[in-house]
Design a protein that fits this description.
- By secondary structure, the chain is α+β, with helices and mostly antiparallel strands.
- Helices cover about 25% and strands about 15% of the residues.
- The chain has helices at about 40-45, 50-60, 110-120, 130-145, 290-295, 360-365, 365-370, 405-415, 420-425, 430-445, 450-455, 470-490; strands at about 5, 10-15, 25-30, 65-70, 85-90, 250-260, 265-270, 280-285, 300-305, 310, 315, 320, 320-325, 330-335, 345-350, 375, 380-385, 385-390, 395.
- The longest helix has 21 residues, at about 470-490.
- The protein is flat.
Length: about 500
């Protein structure tokens, strides 16, 4: 077959005998002869891919519209008895799919009722059938004026009307309070309100401050449960520092790859990273750097605990790791050693610990903190802060050596402070050098002695072991330019 794309639950292919160029099929991988015996979970998984296939067909053919056709049973035109959906691109007046015109007469209530009775009758198991029946019955009662309010349930924890009010429990360690003496009958004022005082001076049952006659109140106060306070002297819980241990980097194998239907820069890949659910879908911007046959079947390293994000309408659940030079003219996968199996975690000595969950990784911007410390050494070994990535007793490597995010970060670290934001953020070492020269010229010419004094103390030489030879050579060239400018102005 001519495969368009494949997921865990579905397969999209070109029809072997197309009605028109671009005629495609979407099939479930689960065994089902038609939609009539398709489980709901399978239907949901397969139909979620239908918009993707329709968009790809329309993009490839330029058709202004498509038909989605699905046949069930031989009398309906089904020839292959495995459920499948046809996606047929349509052009104006092509006459490919013609349906009988709709009836000129509207469906009558009697006809509709007869059909609904059969559809919703015993055995039909229509969703929400009991709820719909209850709503219909309520509507009928409302029309007849026979709706009665629902009976009031006795309040929880309250006694029957007329019972004495229970006194609140006494405090711990004290005797319970004696029962109150009977209150004399309250007098009734001219307005008919019970509000007089008894002989004891207490307000009557109907007065302000006491329960109305015939009503019962629960005088027990609800006690809120207090959270247990931390023990005195207990050490505060310290959050783990953000480092390599936060990242869930695993060995992966690209089992399938296809061009993105709406972006010429992206590949849509299915990668086995050891998940129980099967390969996960990941999108990578490799289309301008690698051919499909180079990506298909490649062994890679993947960061797996990133928040899934849509890329040009398709969700990507992870990121393939590559090494590149500064201008990204050379790009290559970071490859695990031979013998490493899909799903094995890549570790770095000295940074052990369980990977962080996706939600916290995203909230704390863990990837943004960890990724800038990735690099490859002169032999192409992938490193984190100069320490090699290891898995299955070997090291992860790339064809691009001495390439890193640290190169960009450290190359800008030694630039004088009087640089613009744009120059400091540049990825090009040449741009950084030009910015240094411009800053030196501006300071010396425009600020007099202050500028010259600043230039007489050039930036400190980079001493970190992770700085590449190219960056160190660039620093030396910058120093010569800066000192030359200082002498000329001084």
């Amino acid at each position: 077959c001519h495969k368009i794309f494949e997921t865990e639950h579905a397969l999209a292919i070109l029809d072997a005998f197309p009605m028109t160029p671009g005629h495609s099929l979407l099939l479930p991988k689960a065994p089902c002869a038609s939609v009539l015996d398709m489980p709901p979970t399978v239907a949901a998984a397969v139909l979620s891919e239908l918009p993707r296939l329709a968009q790809a067909v329309q993009l490839a053919t330029g058709a202004p519209g498509v038909n989605i056709v699905q046949n069930n049973g031989s009398v309906a035109g089904q020839v292959v008895f495995h459920a499948h959906f046809h996606v047929i691109p349509r052009q104006k007046d092509d006459g490919l799919v013609t349906l009988k015109p709709s009836a000129s007469k509207m469906l009558s209530p009697e006809e509709a009722g007869a059909l609904l009775t059969k559809m919703q009758g015993p055995g039909a198991d229509a969703p929400y059938s009991k709820t719909l029946a209850a709503i219909d019955a309520l509507a009928a009662d409302m029309r007849a004026g026979t709706v009665s309010p629902p009976p009031k349930a006795a309040p929880k924890g309250k006694e029957a009307t007329g019972a004495a009010v229970a006194a609140p429990a006494g405090k711990k360690g004290t005797a319970p309070a004696p029962a109150a003496a009977p209150t004399p009958a309250a007098t009734v004022d001219g307005k008919g309100k019970a509000g007089g005082k008894g002989a004891s001076g207490e307000k009557g049952a109907g007065g302000k401050g006491g329960p109305p006659e015939g009503k019962v109140f629960n005088t027990e106060k609800k006690v809120k449960e207090k959270k247990a306070a931390p023990e005195k002297g207990a050490a505060p819980v310290e959050e783990r520092p953000i480092d390599w241990s936060w990242a869930d980097v695993r060995v992966g194998v690209i089992t399938d790859v296809a061009p993105h239907p709406q972006s010429d820069k992206l590949y849509v890949e299915q990668i086995d990273v050891g998940d129980a659910e099967g390969p996960r879908q990941i999108l990578s911007g490799l289309a301008h750097h690698m051919k499909l046959e180079e990506v298909q079947g490649a062994r890679v390293t993947v960061i797996c605990n990133l928040k899934p994000r849509p890329m040009a309408g398709i969700v990507s659940n992870g990121m393939v790791l590559c090494a590149s030079d500064k201008d990204k003219s050379a790009l290559a996968f970071v490859v695990p050693p031979e013998g490493a199996k899909p799903g094995e975690r890549v570790m770095v000595a000295g940074y052990e610990g369980a990977p962080m969950e996706v939600k916290k990784m995203d909230k704390k911007k863990g990837w943004d903190a960890v990724q800038p410390e990735f690099s490859t050494d002169g032999a192409g070994v992938a490193c984190y802060k100069g320490v090699a990535w290891e898995v299955a007793g070997g090291k992860c490597t790339s064809k691009v050596a001495a390439a890193s995010s640290p190169d960009r970060a450290r190359a800008t670290r030694y630039v004088p402070r009087r640089l613009t934001r744009a120059a400091t953020c540049s990825n090009s070492a040449a741009a950084v050098a030009a910015a240094v020269v411009n800053a030196a010229h501006t300071n010396a010419a425009g600020e007099g002695g202050r500028g010259r004094a600043h230039l007489r103390r050039p930036p400190r030489e980079p001493r970190e072991s992770g700085v590449s030879p190219a960056t160190r050579q660039q620093w030396l060239q910058v120093q010569l330019v800066v000192l030359d400018r200082s002498c000329a102005q001084g």
